[in-house]
Model the fold of this input.
Amino acid sequence: MVKLSTLLFLAIMPLSSYCFEPGFQKNRDTLLLYTPHPKPAPRINGPMVYGCRPGNPFLYRIPCQGERPIRFSAEGLPDGLKLDPASGIITGTSPLKGDYNIVIKAKNPKGTSTRKFKIAVGDKLALTPPMGWNHWYAHYNRITDKMIREAADEMISSGMADVGYQYVNIDDCWMNAPKSNDSLRVGPLRDKQENIIPNKHFPDMKNLTDYIHSMGLKAGIYTSPGPLTCGGFAGSYQHEEQDARQFAAWGFDFLKYDWCSYGDIIKNDTSIASYQKPYRQMGNLLKSQDRDIVFNLCQYGMSEVWKWGGEVGGQCWRTSGDLGFELDKIFDVAIKNSKIRQYSKPGEWNDPDYIQIGWIGTANKWGNTELSLMPAAKQYAYMSLWSLLAAPLIYSGDMSKLDEFTLNVLCNPEVIDVNQDQLGESGFVIEKSKECFIMVKNLADGSLAIGLFNRGKEATEVICDWSDLHLSGKQSVRDLWRQKELGIYKNSFTAQVLAQGVVMVKISKP
Ligand code: GLA
Done:
């Protein structure tokens, strides 16, 4: 006999064409779409503050949803910067040190959006957590120039850039290796002048970054302080200065510096100074280049890197090993990161690693991508945790296979606003029970972003008491995922939270 639940399921199925998309898997609840469709009127997104260094090339594509064509304008843009009204891309040379308060405007026949945007010219970069994409968990040692260009194209066409994603980052395996099963990746590691040589899958790095920049996006690259990278490709050991100069000359805007074989160099010297040395050196080298290059430390949290990552010139640092091996533990990883929240601040971010949803490969065998089997509710929880932690939002899945559900998780501008909030605080945790906790993030406007999380196997109620938050009286509550006012609440807010899921709200004075 056919079960009633099966009949109900079949009755619902035709309502959502999404279920029939390739890649739909039975145990993923793809009907769960929280983020409402963007409206046709413009909506400017992205950070409200942006750090850059004086005299360096400036590039910023205004993230904006709504039907194109959109006409952009800006009030208060300093001399040296120019806005292209059709694309919304600001280019030029960063002006003298100082804060420049701009008002950006975006207009189409359906409406107008304005947003304050402060350009803070000084020493600090990444005043809000970096957002972008990294190739690792999609393409591993299969990465090519073509795939990177396609990822940049997708970042625009999928709408990811319209909510703030901007870095297109190459990870390991773009160089030559002493040995590889792909002969196009084997060759001399350096030329006669000791310049690093990209492998045959990357015929022209400058041309590649020009392509990425032409869309208003930014480009990232990867190397190791050791002789070889983790994948066994050429590293920067004893060529640090030359490589930093080369990355700047190629036009890169972001460097991931991955420890890998550097352990062989320090041998048994486990002093903090020896852990810091290669990062301090590269940090100084990057600062001396004539472009802004965000420095991403990747050494898996050794020697409590969060305590000194900023001091050696880093804008963000991985707090632990590869999350690809720990995707079943995202709640624990997030809670661990919240315990070191005081080290996260504007320009200096704890990095619990990439957002791995959609089509991703297995971490251990560098396998081909498969659709993530993480329950839908948990994927929203994952994105909420990273937003509340003020973690870098770097997606690492196959951009050519982005589906409606994955984009729904990645592209909610109200959730991203929490991540990009200019106060730059990371969230703290209040345990509610063995299975439930809330994460609280103070926001610049005095309101609070709250995630009510349920790690359990059944849906349950989670209560957020105002006394937990040192609040009292009436508070207005807005559901951030659904972008909906829930009303005025007194004393507490209670939500029904799906198994492994989240309800994320903003609590503010009515
Ligand atoms: C390490 C890093 C990963 C990735 C690989 C590349 O494992 O932690 O993020 O960069 O190396 O080999």
About this structure: The first strand starts at residue 43 and ends at 44. Residues 136, 171-172, 229-231, 258, 298, 322 surround alpha-D-galactopyranose (CB under 6 Å).
